[in-house]
Specification:
- The structure is a single chain.
- This protein has helices at 15-34, 48-55, 60-64, 84-93, 137-153, 169-186, 192-200, 211-217, 229-244, 289-292, 307-313, 335-346, 362-371, 382-386, 412-424; strands at residues 38-39, 45-47, 67-70, 76-79, 102-111, 123-132, 159-165, 250-251, 263-271, 279-285, 300-306, 326-331, 353-355, 376-381, 389-395, 401-408.
- The protein is elongated.
- Helix content is 38%, strand content 22%.
- The chain starts with 14 loop residues before the first helix and ends with a helix.
- It folds into two domains: 15-168 and 228-317, Bira Bifunctional Protein, Domain 2 (BirA Bifunctional Protein, domain 2), CATH 3.30.930.10; 322-421, Rossmann fold (3-Layer(aba) Sandwich).
- It contains 15 helices and 16 strands.
- With 426 residues, the protein is of the alpha+beta class.
- The structure holds histidyl-adenosine monophosphate (HAM).
- The site of histidyl-adenosine monophosphate has 26 residues, from strand 6, strand 10, strand 11 and helix 11.
Length: 426
């Protein structure tokens, strides 16, 4: 029989790898809490129609990459490829518009049937932030600054912010008319993929990676030149405010993003330290999405960070696990249940406590404590247990015992004092 394996493009995250994930997540969540952003959790499985209407039928995500199937009730379901459409649905469905200003975050797995490679998986994780009900240019700047600061806080270097404006719907329609004419005339200078996009999603041609197409596009009409005065001013204000905050940016007029809901501000943050999948964060404004999905007219802006890419970028110091504070070495008929009781008592402190459950010899248990670089050990055998006491021993940085005390099992006060003085004190 063949061994069972995980699906291509999915990965197991093992305990050793998860130390880094947990440390990164902790820093991220602290930043979000400090910015007064609240968590929202939406289902991983949604009606397919949500993404067709939300993200757009012509996008690669919807037309090629979704995990879609019929459930036992013959309903078409999809594993979410991203979080924004679900948050918009939840906002409408749960009457959240009664408080029209909402700052929300979510974190979890997303699914896209893409060709797996370093930094690109079929099941990946995103941390997303959505500011709903916010339409000022300041909220655009605040969102970009938040993404920038969160990444910087993690010590990530070589960050580049690319910005663009996609104008409003009418700006885009005006541009599209002229762009389509140009595409018809210049069709043969484009790669096959881009030729196929002419009818499905012409805007995406702008962000083709094909060298020939890129060269041809240099002479194509520019969306920027079709912006209304209002959209243009909005973009200038946005850039000016980024400059006040000293957030460096590069304008990229071909940055159109892969999802149809964007209006005005679009941005991506890339890192030179990643390979070809360099975009660690992408986002933008989506002023029409909530209305288009049947909700009230509600402007919004947000971003999502790809956690796999973030983990690749985050420093190795975040991989170091926290050391065990107390390792409880115990052996003997009377000692073992008392050791268990002691370990339960210790759970009220902010300590990493491990009770040895192996039943092996004292020397083996000592070795284990040593291997774990435990800061201290408790030793209880039947000799100690019959005297209703235990030994607690502290080690210095190099693993040498530098303090030892015998404490009565009944004397919780003495134990607490020892812990406070030796393990919890700075
Ligand atoms: P997105 O650009 O499609 O935007 O994805 C955001 C980030 O998720 C990407 O920059 C990348 O880091 C990560 N990502 C995407 N696909 C994969 C993959 N196959 N494997 C690994 N990482 C991946 C969105 O999803 C929007 N919902 C962002 C947003 C929120 N816009 C407004 N609000």
């Amino acid at each position: 029989m063949n061994n069972l394996k995980n699906l291509r493009g999915t990965v197991d995250l093992l305990p050793d790898q998860l130390t880094k994930w947990q440390n990164v997540e902790k820093i991220l969540l602290e930043q979000l809490a400090r910015a007064s952003i609240k968590e929202i959790r939406t289902p991983i499985l949604e009606m397919t129609e949500l993404f067709i209407r939300g993200i757009g039928e012509g996008t690669d995500v919807v037309s090629k990459e979704m995990y879609t199937f019929l459930d036992r009730g013959e309903r078409s379901c999809t594993l979410r490829p991203e979080g924004t459409a679900s948050v918009a649905r939840a906002f409408i469905q749960n009457g959240m518009s009664s408080n029209p200003l909402q700052k929300l975050w979510y974190m979890g797995p997303m699914f896209r049937y893409e060709r797996p490679q370093a930094g690109r998986q079929r099941q990946f994780h995103q941390l997303g932030v959505e500011f709903i009900g916010y339409d000022s240019v300041r909220s655009d700047v605040e969102i970009v600054a938040l993404a920038w600061d969160v990444l910087s806080k993690l010590g990530i270097k070589e960050l580049n912010l690319e910005i663009n404006t996609l104008g409003d719907v009418s700006d885009r329609l005006n541009f599209q008319k002229s762009f389509l004419k140009w595409l018809e005339i210049n069709k043969n200078s484009l790669d096959i993929d881009s030729q196929n996009r002419i009818t499905k999603n012409p805007l995406r041609i702008l962000d083709s990676k094909d060298i020939q197409t890129k060269k041809a596009l240099k002479n194509a009409p520019r969306l920027f030149n079709f912006l209304s005065e209002k959209s243009h001013k909005r973009y200038l204000d946005f850039k000016q405010q980024l400059e006040v905050l000293k957030i460096p940016y590069v304008e990229n007029f071909n940055l159109v993003r892969g999802l149809d809901y964007y209006t005005h501000t679009a941005f991506e943050i890339t890192s030179g330290a990643l390979g070809s999948q360099a975009t660690v964060c992408g986002g933008g404004r989506y002023d029409n999405l909530i209305k288009q999905m049947g909700g009230p007219n509600t402007p919004a802006i947000g971003f999502a960070i790809g956690l796999e890419r973030l983990i690749l970028l985050a420093g190795n110091e975040l991989e170091v696990p926290r050391n065990t504070d107390i390792y409880i070495i115990n052996k003997g008929y009377i000692a073992e249940p008392l050791a268990m009781d002691l370990s339960r008592k210790l759970k009220k402190y902010d300590l990493l406590v491990e009770l040895d459950l192996s039943g092996s010899s004292f020397s083996k248990q000592f070795k284990k404590a040593n291997k774990l670089k435990s800061k201290s050990i408790i030793v209880i055998g039947d000799d100690e247990a019959t005297k209703r006491e235990f030994i607690i021993r502290l080690f210095d940085q190099s693993g040498n015992a530098n303090k030892e005390e015998v404490i009565s099992l009944e004397n919780d006060f003495e134990l607490e004092k020892w812990i406070n003085n030796n393990l919890l004190a700075k």
